[in-house]
């Protein structure tokens, strides 16, 4: 089995979470930079990374990496990539997306066109043909140019990995599944600790938490564009990865996960989404305003995405809402709170500065994860043999 390099994007500020996920897949981490990680492994990584990774949008083969400041350099360097290693003669291939940041080559349509021509020129010579039917499997190419450095990736995922398949309906400003999972994995929460999302919307945070707690792989019930690529990855690798994912599921685990929302229609949507994700037995959803939140349980977690006035007309309601959030949350004095918000005065009206805050880009919107750390639960008492004898007596 030959090693190859891969590249996966992640939310800016969540690189460490993706790095931990990749470490569990037993790959070699080659480079960590803002919003992406490059790593190495055999072709089996394609199947395992797509099925098991919770916090990336896609898994790409890093076909080439080079510097280009002119379109001629872009063409020649693209043509020098051994495309025949990845793309069969009958494949359908195209540059599906190009991005450019702080680079001299900035016209994305020209970048796409020139790179496609360079690929065709290379493959025409290799396959000794003047025409490609392109009636086979799809091999989409994604290109990013960052400060004149070009990263050329072959997309193995197809539809973004945040589309697990369970969220058929969503609210106005849903959190992506990948960001919800990253938020949860960035906390010390474990399945044996209570978790509440008082602004659950379509249920993404509770559902992702239940999937993490029950060890359900996020990609277990969906398809990927590369699962038909018999020239790069054998079908057996997919079967093995799915078998591995099924063997890891813990259906007998006991969890206390609750999702609340003031909108009853959203609660119904959340319940349906949880059923599709096959985790409805682990989550209690209820229509309830945040001010009614209470719990007799200790050392729990609130992980939530409250409204933050994305629309101008909603801004005036934010101070009262965040005062209510702070007043309610602080009654749960042994709990930890993790709140993602783009509201710039969130801490001011919450009434307490966060222990930590982490800047995150949710799409193009700058947000922060405010982290309020509660006390650790007491360690279980270790009984000696003498203690046990006294209890038995």
Q: How many domains in all?
A: 2
- The end-to-end span amounts to 62 Å
Radius of gyration, rounded? 24 Å
Average predicted local confidence, pLDDT:
94
What do we call the CATH topology of the largest domain?
Rossmann fold
Shape: globular
Written as H for each helix and E for each strand, in order along the chain, the element string is EHEEHEHEHEEHEHHEHEEHEHEEH
Number of helices: 11
- Unreliable segments of 5+ consecutive residues: none
Strand order of the largest sheet: 2-3-1-4-7-6-5
CATH superfamily name of the largest domain? Vaccinia Virus protein VP39
The structure class reads alpha/beta
Fraction in helix:
25-40%
Tell me the name of the CATH class of the largest domain.
Answer: Alpha Beta
Largest sheet features:
7 strands, mixed
Provide a brief overview of the structure.
The protein has 393 residues and is of the alpha/beta class. It has helices spanning 15-24, 44-52, 71-79, 108-127, 177-185, 204-213, 235-248, 264-276, 318-329, 346-350, 385-392, and strands at residues 4-9, 28-33, 36-41, 60-67, 92-101, 138-146, 149-155, 195-197, 257-261, 283-287, 301-304, 336-341, 356-362, 365-372.
What features would you describe in this structure?
It is a single chain. The chain has 393 residues and is an alpha/beta fold. The protein has 2 domains: 4-155, VC0802-like, CATH 3.30.2130.30; 177-217 and 249-372, Rossmann fold. 30% of the residues lie in helices and 23% in strands. The protein has a 7-stranded mixed beta sheet. The longest helix is centred in the first third of the chain and has 20 residues, at 108-127. The radius of gyration is 24 Å and the shape is globular. It starts with a strand and ends with a helix.
């Amino acid at each position: 089995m030959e090693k190859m390099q891969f590249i996966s994007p992640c939310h800016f500020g969540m690189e460490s979470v993706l790095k931990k996920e990749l470490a569990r897949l037993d790959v070699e981490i080659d480079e960590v930079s803002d919003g992406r990680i490059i790593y190495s492994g055999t072709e089996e990584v394609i199947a395992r990374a797509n099925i098991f990774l919770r916090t990336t949008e896609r898994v790409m083969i890093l076909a080439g990496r080079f510097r280009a400041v002119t379109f001629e350099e872009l063409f020649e360097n693209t043509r020098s990539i051994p495309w025949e290693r990845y793309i069969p003669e009958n494949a359908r291939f195209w540059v599906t997306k190009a991005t450019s940041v702080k680079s001299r080559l900035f016209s994305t349509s020209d970048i796409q066109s020139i790179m496609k021509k360079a690929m065709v020129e290379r493959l025409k010579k290799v396959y000794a043909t003047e025409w490609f039917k392109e009636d086979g499997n799809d091999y989409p190419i994604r290109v990013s140019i960052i400060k004149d450095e070009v990263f050329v990736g072959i997309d193995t995922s197809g539809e973004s990995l945040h589309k697990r398949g369970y969220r058929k309906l969503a609210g106005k400003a849903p959190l992506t599944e990948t960001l919800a999972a990253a938020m949860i994995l960035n906390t010390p929460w474990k399945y044996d600790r209570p978790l509440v999302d008082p602004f659950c919307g379509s249920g993404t945070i509770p559902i992702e938490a239940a999937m993490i707690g029950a060890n359900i792989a996020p990609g277990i019930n969906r398809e990927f564009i590369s699962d038909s690529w018999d020239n790069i990855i054998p079908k057996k690798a997919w079967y093995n990865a799915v078998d591995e994912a099924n063997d890891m599921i813990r259906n007998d685990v006991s969890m206390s996960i609750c999702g609340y929302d003031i909108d009853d229609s959203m609660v119904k949507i959340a319940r349906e989404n949880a059923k599709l994700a096959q985790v409805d037995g682990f989550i209690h959803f209820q229509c309830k305003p945040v001010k009614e939140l209470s719990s007799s349980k200790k050392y729990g977690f609130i992980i939530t995405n409250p409204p933050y006035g994305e629309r101008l007309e909603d801004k005036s309601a934010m101070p009262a809402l965040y005062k209510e959030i702070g007043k309610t949350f602080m009654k749960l004095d042994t709990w930890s709170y993790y709140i993602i918000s783009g509201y710039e005065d969130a801490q001011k009206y919450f009434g307490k500065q966060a222990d930590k805050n982490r800047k995150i880009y949710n799409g193009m919107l700058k947000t922060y994860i405010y982290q309020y750390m509660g006390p650790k639960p007491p360690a279980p008492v270790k009984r000696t043999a003498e203690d046990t004898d006294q209890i038995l007596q």
